[in-house]
Design goal:
Blueprint lengths: L2 H4 L9 H11 L6 H13 L4 H7 L14 H5 L7 H19 L3 H17 L13 H19 L5 H11 L5 H9 L5 H7 L3 H13 L10 H18 L8 H25 L6 H11 L4 H4 L5 H16 L7 H7 L10 H11 L4 H14 L4 H14 L3 H19 L2 H16 L8 H9 L10 H14 L5 H9 L9 H17 L22 H19 L4 H9 L1 H12 L11 H11 L5 H22 L10 H22 L9 H7 L12 E5 L7 H22 L10 H10 L2 H17 L6 H16 L6 E5 L9 H6 L7 H21 L13 H14 L21 H15 L5 H10 L1 H5 L10 H9 L10 H16 L13 H18 L18 H22 L6 H14 L4 H19 L9 E5 L2 E5 L1 H9 L13 H15 L5 H15 L1 H9 L1 H16 L6 H17 L11 H13 L5 H11 L6 H20 L7 H14 L29 H5 L1 H8 L5 H8 L4 H17 L17 H18 L7 H11 L4 H11 L12
Parallel strand pairs: 1-2
Antiparallel strand pairs: 3-4
Helix pairs in contact: 3-6, 4-7, 7-8, 7-9, 12-14, 13-14, 13-17, 14-15, 19-21, 20-22, 21-23, 22-23, 25-27, 26-27, 28-30, 29-30, 33-34, 33-35, 35-37, 35-38, 38-40, 40-41, 40-42, 40-43, 42-43, 45-47, 47-48, 47-50, 49-50, 52-53, 52-55, 54-57, 56-57, 57-59, 58-60, 59-60, 62-64, 64-65, 64-66
Length: 1451
């Protein structure tokens, strides 16, 4: 040891770290660890304090011990000795000292640690208000415990001995010190709890003191962390299931921990019972309530243990101090609602319930109620908390109440009974948004014959005895409920109920509560304030009127009050209702309510008369004082009309009975007042607009229309009860004719009829259906007087008859509207047949053919048994007259419709067998053709069909194969011709797809293609086509394909009669639909095999003509068939060829003919060959048993191989194929190349070919020009404009010395020479736009190439023709302008036209006069003189040999 260190003053203490640091700083070289350790021991021998040594060997960094972070110690490790070194030093010294004293090292170390710990906390002994260490103490304690852990690791410290010494010396240890001992693994809290008897009481006091700490005081966050750790240990010790949990020490520890947890929870609950003014206690207990959080101890405690802890705590809370009786709970329950419950208690219940389902909580609550004495305040507050915070509690509580009541009445158990009532009342306290009111619950539980007590007298007596026992304790509001909504009692037991009512009224009288003054809708089960009787009566009136307006009925509460609470009803309710006022002309809800009460005889006649007189006086008073004009009620046209309709109905019944003349209805003048516009107009000369999506009439008009329709239906029922329609007077016809005399009324009627039939058919009763059906029949009978109807939106083309318009409101697309439609049509046709029985010569007058056809469609579809019974009558040729048998049949038919016990199926069966019904089908207009059947079937939505998939397949096969295929053509069938059937199906599919095309007007009313029966109809088509194939094979006829192509040709020719753009769009839509249809059919149907000269050869003429004439118009992009269509056509050729004598030879001939006459198919085959090759090769090998590919198909393969080689830069011979085919293959490969370098290399290779291959470059230019035009016409391809222009310019660079490319831009096809095939490759629109392409390319050529191009023979002639055509396109508005965000000048038509003029004028100036003949010059001048005089003048000036001199130009 150095002299400097030993000569220091004894009072000046230096730490060991400073001494060691000084030692290192004074010596030039650091000694090894052993020498340093010896020096330290010598230093310790010189009277150093061992207690201070515990602080010296640790790190002085003040880190937060709670978080157990020692980063600061590690950071200072370079400046202080290692703790291991310090620990070794300390152990050596302790051993030396223990040897001197003759004691164990562990005992000495324990003594030193206890002394140091007491020094740190010694000043707190007299002041226990401080329950936490300060920051300085916490740092020193951290250093001390770190050293202690090192001693413990070196087996120089005994933890259990330390606790004995520390507990003996420190009677009240600080909980935070114990917490650090536990968290730093020096001594576990479990051991401390079971080691000493006084630990439990000490822990309780420490926990309570710690809960008093707030988060704002010193040690922010420390109380929560200490409490969380302690609670985790306690919960784990009590509720964690282990193998040795049954051992005695574990049981003792569990008992101690459980008592601590229970006592702390009891302390919290005791705090809650204090007065509300003592908020400090509740704040103190709040910190312990926060410990009931699954996230605080969820890491160290298993979920099962946590659930057991929460269940135990909940049980303890519910059963804590059950000092209140049930009678107290009944009386005080109103004060225990959620709003009045202590916030801390509700927070406790929320935290305990968060990890459980509502069903589990209520089940446990029931178990506690059955097995324990409970604290009713806590139980009911818990229930309120669950109801408010968990919306799933209401249904679970209802189930619990149902179980309790069932159990109570089964065993006559009062405990379950009172429990159910208390729980129900508690739920009702929280309001109707949380749980039904008590009155509603009481009525639902005991108000019906099927209630719990309704099965026996004993149950009734049990209930009434229970309610009677509650009377002395029940609050008045519940007694009122029991009186106003008494339990159901059979008539013979009424005396029992009267006894209870008398007892209850006596109790209410003692409480000075009047049952008579209570309102009808007063909240008698909640906690609301009372309302004055007069105000309550007005509130009752408004509520009753509101309910009447929404339901159309007098509420049951009002009806019951008129009987059971008659004094209040007469003295309070009616005076508030019958307050005098000025009555409105149009009855409002109050007037209707008063009228309903008057009709129900609930308002005394004298009181009602007095009310009417008072209202009249009030009206007169206002008229006299303010000059208000008031209309008399007697002049109200609506009321007058109602009276007239009632009188007409009465006279009608009398007329039918006495068989007098029909009663007349004098309603036309009244209708003219209600519908004043155009009352005398001839309706038959007008067209009615029927808006199917909206109502355009006022409420008054709608009410009048409903009144008229209702009166008609009622009159029809009254008349039909006495006699069938054929025996009735023509009152219905006169009724309808009067209505037809008012156009506005008829319009409103049709709107209402449409709404009823289309939107409300399901809700109509049988009487409504029958009345409306008869009304429609009479409208049909008076169709000559009816105007035409235009549907808006136009669902039908042009104006139609009233019947057709209303028939449109009866779709047959789903099961729901099918069922309503068949009900309505059966009623209408039955009524029409019965009505027209006396009109033998004109059965059509009362039998609408459209409704009859719907029955022909729906009855066999919905009733399979009807398919076996033909609808046509056998051997009967005349209409059945009014003979006796016919009358009997009509009576039976009419009875089947009007009988309320008869279903529509029975009515339909009777109608189907009715002879007149079956005779109608002989008339042409009543025949339901195959085409009509297909159209109806295609509208059915498969997902909502009345038939399942197998049933629908069976029905459709029956209709196609058995019904329509063998039927004659004049009866709507096919006469056994499969082609006719196939044509009908194809036309129906095409028409359906056209109808389903989405437009803005018909989107909501047209059936969408998705989900229809189209797949099923396709299946029927394929069945017929397969049968045709078998038939053709057996008959050896192979001309089956022509009729398919003839069909599409006919449809396209009809479409092409329209105007230009619309014609093109229609053709494209038709072709798109046709292509989808034809792809579903066998490809072999498209090519014919003809027989001639003993040979069988292919005939592709019709197919090629179809492609050239129609398919090229629908290509997108132009000049290229879709892949699937191309493959289908080529498969047709291959599959048909195997029926010929030489399949390979016929394929070669067909492909050669296609190359010459159908270049579009050739170009498409070359373009798609990469995808076609595996398909066609595989098909050919399957068809020919592996024969080599035909030569022409091999040529396609060679061309594709050649272009792939040229793309890779490999030079190989050009195949001997059509230049157009080579160009198509090369163009296809170029489309996939991003870089233009490879394309230019290929062009250089092509430029070196002989002149016989120059046609390839010209065709290639044509295909690239087509791409260029596509960028103008297709917005999606605008970005490819520059690339298309570059390709065209690169090709023109190679063709600069040739004039053949100019032939592409010649207008007549005859002038194109060798390049005529391009005219039938692209569409007519692209051909018209070729001048636009010409001037989109030429002005952008560089000057050198442009100069050479201008000098090419025929360039000027072509340029002038293209310029004139471009001007015409511009003037006609046919130049496309792409709609894009990045529109450049190169795409602007006006810019292109300006550049075209500049280039043309320059070309004219550079052209020699000898380049054009005089005839050509005159032709061009005449062409341009009107379009562009400047160009015409330039032509004359520069190229005319006889042009004038400049001087004479002025003459």
């Amino acid at each position: 040891m150095s002299l400097g260190a030993s000569s220091m003053c004894p009072t000046q203490k230096r730490t060991l770290s400073c001494l060691l640091a000084g030692r290192v700083g004074k010596r030039p070289k650091q000694k090894n660890v052993q020498e340093l350790q010896e020096a330290a021991v010598q230093l310790l021998n010189r009277h150093q304090n061992l207690s201070d040594l515990f602080l010296e060997v640790g790190s002085p960094n003040p880190c937060n011990l709670i978080c157990k972070e020692y980063s600061g110690q590690q950071k200072g490790a370079s400046q202080s000795p290692s703790p291991t070194i310090g620990g070794s030093l300390l152990v050596n010294e302790l051993r030396r000292k223990a040897g001197e004293l003759g004691v164990p090292v562990a005992a000495l170390s324990v003594k030193m640690v206890v002394e140091r710990l007491l020094d740190l906390t010694g000043h707190i002994k007299g002041d226990r208000e401080q329950v936490l260490l300060n920051s300085t103490q916490r740092v020193q304690l951290s250093v001390l415990f770190q050293s202690t852990r090192e001693l413990l690791s070196l087996e120089a410290f005994c933890s259990k001995l330390f606790w004995q010494e520390y507990w003996r010396d420190q009677k009240q240890p600080m909980l935070e010190v114990v917490y650090h001992l536990h968290t730093q693994n020096i001594l576990s809290l479990e051991y401390m709890l079971e080691s000493e008897n006084g630990v439990r009481s000490w822990l309780m006091s420490e926990l309570k003191a710690l809960c008093g700490r707030t988060a704002t005081e010193e040690g922010d966050g420390v109380p929560q962390q200490v409490l969380s750790t302690v609670v985790s240990v306690l919960v784990r010790a009590v509720f964690e299931e282990t193998q040795d949990s049954t051992a005695a020490p574990c049981r003792r520890l569990s008992q101690v921990c459980r008592s601590v947890l229970d006592d702390m929870l009891s302390w919290v609950l005791d705090t809650l019972n204090c007065k509300p003014t003592l908020q400090s206690g509740q704040t103190t207990a709040e910190l312990w309530v926060q410990m009931f959080d699954a996230s605080l101890c969820g890491v160290s405690v298993s979920p099962d243990a946590l659930r057991r802890f929460f269940i135990h705590s909940l049980t303890h809370t519910l059963t804590y101090r059950p000092r209140l009786k049930v009678s107290d709970a009944i009386a005080m329950q109103r004060e225990w609602s959620f709003a009045k419950t202590c916030r801390l208690l509700t927070s406790l219940f929320r935290k305990l319930a968060v990890i459980f389902k509502v069903e589990e909580l209520l089940s446990h609550l029931q178990q506690v109620l059955e097995t324990h004495e409970v604290n009713w305040q806590h139980v009911l507050s818990c229930l309120s908390t669950l109801l408010v915070y968990n919306p799933n509690t209401q249904p679970s509580l209802k189930e619990l109440l149902s179980r309790l009541l069932s159990s109570a009445f089964e065993g006559y158990d009062l405990e379950n009974m009172i429990t159910a009532f208390l729980l129900a009342r508690q739920g009702a306290l929280e309001g109707p948004g949380v749980f039904p009111s008590y009155s509603e619950w009481f009525k639902m539980s005991f108000g019906g014959a099927s209630s719990y007590h309704g099965n026996s007298k004993k149950s009734l007596v049990f209930l009434l005895k229970f309610l009677s026992d509650l009377v002395p304790f029940d609050p008045p509001q519940y007694l009122k409920v029991h009186i106003l909504h008494p339990p159901y009692v059979a008539v013979k037991h009424r005396a029992l109920l009267q006894e209870y009512v008398s007892l209850t009224k006596t109790r209410l009288a003692d409480l000075k509560v009047s049952i008579e003054e209570m309102g009808l809708y007063e909240d008698i089960s909640g906690a609301g304030t009372s309302v004055q009787p007069r105000c309550q009566a007005r509130q009752d009136v408004e509520k009753a009127i509101s309910l009447f307006g929404s339901t159309g009925r007098i509420s049951a509460t009002v009806m019951e009050a008129s009987i059971f609470r008659r004094p209040y009803f007469l003295s309070r309710f009616l005076p508030a209702l019958l307050t005098p006022r000025v009555l409105p002309v149009k009855p409002d809800a109050r007037m209707n309510f008063i009228d309903s009460l008057k009709k129900a005889e609930k308002i005394p006649a004298a009181q009602h008369s007095s009310y009417i007189e008072s209202c009249q006086r009030e009206r007169q008073r206002q008229q006299d004082s303010k000059g208000v004009s008031v209309v008399n009620d007697d002049d109200n046209p609506q009321e007058v009309l109602q009276v007239q309709l009632q009188e007409h109905r009465a006279l009608l019944t009398e007329g039918v009975v006495t068989e007098r003349c029909q009663p007349s209805w004098p309603g036309s003048p009244t209708l003219s007042i209600v519908f004043p516009e155009r009352a005398e107009e001839l309706v038959s000369q007008a067209v009615i607009q029927l808006h199917v999506d909206e109502s355009i009439f006022s409420e008054l008009h709608n009410k009048v229309v409903n009144m008229i329709l209702r009166s008609f239906c009622q009159s029809l029922l009254d008349a039909s009860r006495i006699s069938p329609p054929n025996k009735q007077s023509p009152w219905a016809s006169q009724f309808v004719n009067i209505l037809l005399g008012h156009r506005q009324l008829l319009t409103a009627l049709l709107h209402r009829m449409w709404d009823l039939l289309h939107n409300q058919g399901v809700s109509l009763s049988a009487a409504h259906v029958l009345g409306l059906a008869a009304f429609v029949v009479h409208l049909h009978a008076s169709q000559t007087k009816c105007p035409k109807v235009q549907l808006c939106p136009p669902l039908l083309p042009g104006p139609v008859s009233v019947l057709e318009a209303l028939t449109t409101a009866l779709p047959c697309t789903t099961q729901t509207n099918m069922l309503f439609c068949v009900r309505f049509c059966v009623a209408a046709v039955c009524y029409g047949l019965c009505r027209s029985e006396s009109l033998c010569d004109q059965p059509q007058q009362y039998n609408p053919c459209s409704l009859y056809k719907k029955l022909l469609y729906l009855i066999p579809r919905l009733m399979p048994d009807m398919r076996r019974l033909p609808v046509e009558a056998s051997g009967e040729s005349e209409y059945v007259g009014a003979n006796k048998q016919g009358e009997e049949e009509n009576c039976g038919l009419w009875k089947s419709v009007t009988d309320t016990h008869t279903t529509w199926r029975k009515s339909a069966w009777a109608l189907w067998k009715h002879a007149p019904f079956r005779l109608l089908v002989k008339l042409p207009e009543y025949q339901f053709s195959f085409s009509e059947w297909l159209a109806a079937e295609l509208r059915v939505q498969r997902s909502e069909d009345a038939l399942s998939d197998p049933d629908r397949q069976e029905y459709q096969q029956w209709a196609c194969q058995q019904l329509y295929l063998p039927s004659p053509v004049d009866k709507g069938g096919c006469a056994g011709d499969l082609r006719t059937a196939c044509s009908h199906i194809l036309n129906a599919v095409m028409d359906q797809k056209t109808v389903c095309a989405p437009t803005q007007e018909n989107t909501d009313h047209r059936p969408s293609e998705a989900g229809t029966c189209l797949p099923d109809i396709f299946s029927r088509l394929q069945e017929i086509v397969y049968e045709m194939e078998l038939t053709s094979r057996s008959q050896r006829t192979q001309d089956k394909g022509h009729f398919l192509l003839d069909l599409i040709s006919h449809r396209c020719s009809v479409t092409s009669d329209l105007q230009s753009i619309s014609s093109e769009l229609s053709i494209q839509q038709t072709l798109h639909t046709w292509n989808r249809v034809i792809l579903a059919l066998p490809a072999v149907m498209l090519v014919t095999v003809k027989t001639g000269g003993g040979k069988r050869t292919l005939d592709c003429e019709t197919l090629m003509e179809h492609i050239n004439q129609y398919q090229r118009k629908g290509c997108s992009p132009a000049g290229l068939l879709p892949y699937h269509l191309t493959a289908h056509f080529l498969r047709a050729v291959l599959m048909a060829s195997v029926s010929c004598d030489c399949a390979s030879g016929e394929v070669n001939k067909a492909m050669s003919l296609i190359s010459l006459q159908c270049p579009l198919l050739l170009v498409s085959a070359g373009h798609w060959w990469g995808r076609l090759s595996p398909v066609l090769v595989s098909l050919w090998h399957r068809l020919t048993d592996g024969q080599p590919l035909p030569q022409q198909l091999q040529v396609l393969a060679d061309c594709h191989l050649w272009v792939c080689s040229s793309k890779d830069g490999v030079s190989c011979p050009v195949p001997s194929a059509s230049p157009l085919l080579l160009a198509a293959c090369l163009h296809c490969v170029w489309e996939g190349q991003v870089s233009g370098k490879g394309i230019r290399t290929s062009l250089e290779m092509l430029g070196q070919l002989t002149e016989q291959h120059s046609q390839l470059l010209v065709f290639l230019l044509f295909l690239c020009v087509t791409d260029l035009l596509t960028t103008f016409l297709t917005p999606q391809r605008v970005k490819g404009l520059q690339r298309a222009q570059e390709l065209c310019k690169d090709i023109l660079t190679v063709l600069v010395d040739s004039a053949d490319w100019l032939l592409l831009f010649k207008t007549p096809c005859s002038e194109k020479g060798l390049y005529q095939p391009v005219a039938v490759v692209t569409s007519d629109e692209y051909t018209r736009l070729m001048p636009l392409a010409f001037y989109s390319l030429v002005p952008h050529l560089n000057s050198e190439i442009l100069e050479k191009t201008v000098k090419a023979p025929g360039f000027l002639h072509t340029a002038v023709l293209c310029y004139s055509s471009l001007i015409k396109l511009f003037m006609d508005g046919q130049t496309p302008c792409p709609v894009t965000e990045h529109l450049t000048d190169q795409m602007d038509p006006s810019y292109i036209l300006t550049r075209a003029q500049q280039v043309l004028l320059k070309t004219i100036s550079l052209t020699s006069p000898t380049s054009l003949s005089q005839h050509q010059l005159n032709q061009l001048e005449a062409l341009c003189v009107d379009l562009d005089p400047e160009v015409a003048a330039a032509l004359v000036f520069h190229l005319s040999s006889s042009s004038l001199s400049p001087e004479l130009d002025f003459l």
